[in-house]
Specification:
It is built from 21 helices and no strands. It has 485 residues and is mainly alpha-helical. It has two domains: 2-238, no CATH class; 242-479, Hypothetical protein af1432 (Orthogonal Bundle). The protein starts with a helix and ends with a helix.
Amino acid sequence: MNLWRQLDRIAPRAGVQRTILVVLSRAALIVALSVATLFMFSFGDQHGQSATHLAGHFLSNLLVLSVFAGTLALYRPQLYQSFRAVALFALLFLGVLVVAAAVARAETPHVEFIPIAMMGILLSVLFDPRVSVFAALVLATLIDIQPAYHGTDAPFILLVGGVAAAFSVRVIRRRDQAYYSILVTAAAYVMAEIAIGLTDGWPARQIWWGIGFGIVNAVVSVALALMLLPTLEELTGVDTYLKLLEWSDLNRPLMQRLSVEAPGTFAHSMRLANLAEAACNAIGANGLLSRVGAYYHDIGKLKKPEYFVENQPRGRNPHDKLKPATSAAIIRNHVREGLELAAENNLPAAIRSFITEHHGTAPITYFLEKAKERDGAPTNPADFAYPGPIPQSAETAICMLGDGIEASAHVLHDPTPAKIREVVDHIVRQRIDQGQLRDAPLTLKQLEVIKEQFARVLVGMYHHRIDYPTAGGGVTSEFASVNAT
């Protein structure tokens, strides 16, 4: 899969040159697919076709595919810019067209065997249903204009089946959702067959055969889509819900190491995950991504866990014997070391961004102030700042805010709701003043919702607990204070 990652980077950095190369590469794919379609449906044609007819068919294919590419460029530019995504569209289109050409040569063609439903499911899960629906519409049109399907009911059946499959699944959260997708897609084929059969006066036997083939198509399409999904996730670099769910497993080696070797960091990550998920869900961002990202955001601390305060026994701090610049370097390097661990364990790119962005380019304030007290202003301020980049997504921005807020609230001696809200307001205002949120797609209204969610969750975490009598097995505050002395 490294080849696909390299292909996505072949465009030069210059804007005009990149645009030209992107357009030319997409045009080449369109021409190649148009030629392949012409060849597949014309090869072996017993009646033969003149050069003008072939040119007309080629031009028709080119126009239909160009409409799809142009719409993608206008309304989904991020997909159009990604060579890996465009290559996936081309491969899926080609696969469906190959089957359509084979079906057309059958003695009794059954368009229900064309796997347009499988394509609809895959594109919905990997990208979104709107893209999938439009792809099904374009592909049904492309098949309709082929000579073998002129005057047939193929486009209607394909369009109904493909669109139903696209809408039957948006995000796969559970395995049993496959049954729902099968049911919806099969029902669409059933209704399409009945509608066409009644309109054209088909005999009942032919309608029943069409219904049976449609149901088989629905079952096979969903099964194949689920089988192909992991491979296509790697091809496109898309992190689906199922993939994130797999990485949320706390029994994975990195999480097990974190819980044993850096228990304070592990506990902090769990609390941050609760904060980030609640805030993301409240503003419509990806709650699961924020939770999983929070789990892994501090894995770089595994290299030197004892140098981070949450893992230090009371009264023992190895930084007391180090120069402020050395301490700042250790703290700063947990980002780089986290990326190294992420690469070793093949973490998805979306999760790696939490490692690099959760501190942004913020200063390492504690050791910066110690350096100023000891030696005056440092000659290179970058030595006392995180490498960045600043958050580029709503999820990583929320993780940054939650990271600072959770750490600050955790050390409050009396975490009342008022004090917690004060901490939340202070950290958010500080990050804004530092310019850490300037690239994050968050509005001021969303920030207010995020602050409300942070405060709500933290108040629940640090709520007041009543004393239970020692006679009933509890520990009162008086008992705890006496034994502490």
